[in-house]
């Protein structure tokens, strides 16, 4: 196992200070290691996630070579040549587990914003004190965007949040964590080859969830209640002005509708599987409030906005992979983790084999299936599939 940094590198170096997992502690499970602390319904801090992964590396005796960056992987007659900062390796098979979130995804219009406005990505952001005083424009209303918008607003900086397509979820439903419902009801067990639109499922934004000891819901209604201003999707920059799409009402209704449908699915599952008595009564939540008026443009040179935080998602980095298996959108071409090149495999990607693959708790089943395939490939002792 080759790792360019230390074990749990992404958690040590690429996360902001206040982040906690949005998956509850009881869902922190890796093969043979489960959270066993006093607060199964809480959410791990970044330091706790790092310690958890370090412990896993120790108990699983993973043969990790840290401080070893892979700079190239090339196909050879009998496998792959892996070049690293500490020499070369010849391998019959390679598993790509380099992560789905190696780089923040920032739209090209960032280049058109005036230099007077500081720009940050979640990789640069650590805490509000690093930002100048004054207004902040947070772009993107998925898990990262809603969490940073709330933290910045509470720090006394007026926040405008630019909202595009998003996934609204309550933190708890009928007394249970909403991710308990995903887990138990089988929604997260849906296989990649059963998903209607797999490309879309793999690109779905992260849900508007935050892990706090109070298990609070952090949807757009919660944000407006603390004073965050909502605008539409940031569409263009013209003459130093940010232009936002209108139609927030439609964007909100769609997210509300999808949430309602999901809650209906949960209710139906609880009813038909005899679990109704275990949980509270069905709940319905108020629709997302549409502000009386929303701004369609914002003058970025006026001094009102001093910083922009791009919470527009993350993407993988396969710059080191010299095998033609990456599509035009920068995503690996694979079938349930079996990459489009004999002996090449992937783990740790969104909806790799099931919906739960997007999260840490999905790795056990995925790894078993992918490694089964890999073992058969090696046993067959041939280079075709
Ligand atoms: C902001 C954020 C919040 C998240 N919150 C949650 C959550 O609450 N719950 C949850 O289950 N999941 C969460 N995730 C997803 C989470 O990152 C994954 O579940 C988990 O960390 C994936 O582990 P991984 O090992 O596949 O990828 P990573 O953690 O990205 O690890 C990949 C490793 O590969 C190394 N690497 C990359 N390229 C090279 C190279 N060329 N040479 C050598 N080494 C290399 C990196 O240094 C890194 O250590 C979150 C992700 C992000 C970005």
Shape: globular
The Cα radius of gyration reads 22 Å
Present as ligands are: flavin-adenine dinucleotide
Low-confidence segments, ≥5 residues, pLDDT <50?
A: none
Strand order of the largest sheet: 8-17-9-10-13
Give the % helix. 10-25%
Question: What share of residues are in beta strands?
Answer: 15-25%
Largest sheet: 5 strands, parallel
Terminal-residue CA separation: 24 Å
Structural class category: alpha/beta
The total count of strands amounts to 21
Describe the fold and architecture.
The protein has 385 residues and is of the alpha/beta class. Helices cover 24% and strands 19% of the residues. It has 8 helices and 21 strands. The chain has helices spanning 9-13, 46-59, 143-154, 178-185, 198-203, 220-225, 248-272, 363-380, and strands at 29-30, 33-34, 70-76, 79-84, 87-91, 94-96, 103-104, 118-120, 135-139, 159-162, 172-173, 176-177, 229-231, 234-238, 241-244, 297-299, 305-310, 314-315, 334-335, 338-339, 344-346. Strands 8-17-9-10-13 form a 5-stranded parallel β-sheet. A 3-stranded antiparallel β-sheet has the order 3-4-5, with no helix packed on it. Strand 19 and strand 20 (338-339) form a beta hairpin. The chain starts with 8 loop residues before the first helix and ends in a 5-residue tail after the last helix. It binds flavin-adenine dinucleotide (FAD). Flavin-adenine dinucleotide is lined by residues 2-5, 9-10, 15, 21-23, 69-70, 97-99, 101-102, 144, 314, 320, 348, 359-360.
